[in-house]
Structures are given as structure tokens and as C-alpha cells.
Automatic annotation (TrEMBL):
Protein name, entry field: Thiosulfate reductase cytochrome b subunit
SUPFAM superfamilies referenced in this protein's UniProt entry, alphabetically: Transmembrane di-heme cytochromes
Subcellular location: Cell membrane
Organism (species): Saccharicrinis carchari
Keyword annotations of the record: Cell membrane, Electron transport, Heme, Iron, Membrane, Metal-binding, Transmembrane, Transmembrane helix, Transport
Domain of life the protein comes from: Bacteria
Pfam families associated with the record: Ni_hydr_CYTB
Membrane topology recorded in Swiss-Prot or TrEMBL: Multi-pass membrane protein
Keyword Iron assigned: yes
Chief location of this protein within or outside the cell: membrane
GO cellular component, as recorded: plasma membrane
InterPro entries, per database record: Cyt_b561_bac/Ni-Hgenase, Di-haem_cyt_TM, Hydrogenase_cytochrome, Ni-dep_Hydgase_cyt-B
Domain Cytochrome b561 bacterial/Ni-hydrogenase: 7-195
Length: 229
């Protein structure tokens, strides 16, 4: 095993910012649906709208980052070892079986994660975003300028948005649980905080990446110096 710099600075910023915004959107969303009273309806609506704009901005920024760094390739699905990965999560890990795949700098996601995360990005996220925007701007534009929701009933849009939100919450619960299945309960969480993770040795896990941004190279050197101190 070797300690490898897996998650870059922006990657961690994007992950934790997105998580915070999603849970805040869920909190305000449930209040809008009158599940409880915390901020008050009007403030909850205002906070929900503001957080949605922040999340949209973060998504645009992350799309730009993924394509300019080549990290989008992490989400290319593969069926190689997919069945073995499913068997590991459902049976193997409870019997102490070895993990069927090895994490590396160039392959951070196992086959099942790649398929699930790609589905999240291509189906679930657009479902929530588009329904939210349609609800937010429902027939607020003149028909000669822009047709936003056509003749779709507002109730249908709200139903799709709520369904997407519940699916996202289910995804989040499973995701949080899966973070506890590393070498220790906190291994994966610590890796997403520090960027470093203990993985199997191999050429694919070389930490000196020529394409690594300057900010990540500086962080890498700082962390290495601390480890040697």
C-alpha cells in the first residue's frame, strides 16, 4: 500500500460544496412542502432559490473543470468487473473478500460507481435542475420572447421535481453509507478532505502528474514535507 494524492483541490471543494448545497436545498425544500417550520415559508423559498443558483454555478464550473483537466474520463462506464463489483458490495465485503478493483489516480471510480455517477449526472441532476427552473420561471416570460413551460401543468412539474429530490436523497444516503466501507470507517472521508488515500502500489498511482495544476503541486509538496517532518 502507498499513500497517493488522489483528489485534487478543486475536486474536494466541488464535492463538499455540492454536498452542503444539496442538503440545504433538501432542508428548505421540505420546509416549502410544510414538513416542518424553521425559517418560515417565504425565507425558505428565498433561500432555496439562492442555493439553487449557487448549485447551478458550481455545476457549470465543475463541467468546465472536468473537460479541461480530462477528469471526465473517470465516468466512462465499463462492464468489465461490474458483476464482480456488485457481488462484492452485496455479499463479498461482509465476508471479508478482497476488493475486485484497485483504485488509482487515473481510475478513481470502480465500474459500479462509474455507471451510477454517470447516471446521476446525465439523468437525475438534469431532471431536478430542469424541473426546478421550469417551476421557478413557470410562464414568467412572454410567449413571443421565450416559451418556458408550454402547456405543462405546474403540478406535474412540481411532482417531477419532488420525485427527483427524493431520488437524490436516496442516492445521498447510499453514498454516505458506502463511504464507510473503506479500510476503516473514516478512510474515504479523510481522503476527500486531505486528497491523500492509501491505495495499492503501481505505476498507475504515480503522484507526480505533469498535468497537475500548480496549486495541487504546491499542496502535494507541502503535504510531503509535513509527512517527513
Amino acid at each position: 500500500m502507498a499513500k497517493v494524492y488522489i483528489y485534487k483541490q478543486f475536486e474536494r471543494f466541488w464535492h463538499w460544496s455540492q454536498a452542503a448545497l444539496i442538503f440545504f436545498l433538501a432542508l428548505t425544500g421540505f420546509e416549502i412542502h410544510d414538513s416542518f417550520h424553521l425559517f418560515g415559508f417565504e425565507k425558505a423559498v428565498a433561500f432555496h432559490r439562492s442555493a439553487s443558483y449557487l448549485l447551478l454555478g458550481l455545476i457549470v464550473l465543475s463541467i468546465f473543470w472536468h473537460f479541461t483537466t480530462g477528469e471526465w474520463k473517470q465516468y466512462i462506464p465499463t462492464f468489465s468487473k461490474l458483476r464482480a463489483q456488485i457481488q462484492y458490495y452485496t455479499v463479498g465485503m461482509f465476508k471479508g473478500a478482497p476488493h475486485p478493483t484497485i483504485k488509482s489516480v487515473r481510475k478513481k471510480l470502480n465500474p459500479l460507481q462509474a455507471v451510477v455517477y454517470l447516471g446521476f449526472k446525465l439523468v437525475m441532476a438534469p431532471m431536478i435542475i430542469l424541473s426546478g427552473l421550469l417551476y421557478m420561471f413557470y410562464k414568467s416570460f412572454d410567449v413571443n420572447d421565450m416559451v418556458v413551460a408550454l402547456n405543462i401543468p405546474l403540478e406535474w412539474i412540481a411532482l417531477v421535481h419532488t420525485l427527483g429530490a427524493f431520488l437524490l436523497m436516496a442516492f445521498a444516503v447510499v453514498h454516505i453509507y458506502m463511504t464507510t466501507t473503506g479500510h476503516t470507517v473514516t478512510t474515504n472521508i479523510k481522503a476527500m478532505i486531505t486528497g491523500w488515500e492509501a491505495v495499492a502500489n503501481g505505476a498507475d498511482n504515480e503522484v507526480h502528474d505533469a498535468n497537475m495544476p500548480i496549486c495541487d503541486k504546491k499542496e502535494l509538496e507541502t503535504s510531503k514535507n509535513k509527512n517527513h517532518a
